[in-house]
Amino acid sequence: MPGNKSIPKEKPQRFVDLIKQNTAHKVIINDEADRILSDLNSHIISEGLDRVELKNEGFEFEFTGEVKLKNGWLQCLATLKRENDVTIEPSGSFFGSPLDLLIYCLRYDYTAQFMGINQTGGIDGSVRDAKFTIIVGVDTETCEAQLEGFKLNRQG
């Protein structure tokens, strides 16, 4: 499948073994998730991926006016942190894991027009309490991982 990344066999096997040893069908893997996030944060910095572009946005108002946001980006991606417990649940030879993450910094250039008056500038923001969830699935036989879902839960 497009976007799949092959991962070492021992990683998913550890998760499968944890599930087999546990009588519950859901296993908490916070320590492993924190190690993965630490590695991911290091990778983001080393590869220069700490800044991600955002799509342009525009808003019109009931009164005469509009705001356009351009050249936006998220930054501080290398500070991803887990918010809740990370669990894995098996389903045959496949397991999925939701991961709640927090994000921090954003920037946009803006142009605003209200009743014939134009204004331009930049918006720098710290996003507090913004949370999104990603769901990653892994096939334990092929060791292929794929993004199963992405959701912005809280806009901050």
UniProtKB/TrEMBL annotation:
| Superkingdom, natural source | Eukaryota
Q: Extract the InterPro entries matched here.
A: Mite_allergen_7_sf (IPR038602), Mite_allergen_group-7 (IPR020234)
Q: What is this protein called?
A: Uncharacterized protein
The organism named in the record is Ignelater luminosus (Cucubano)
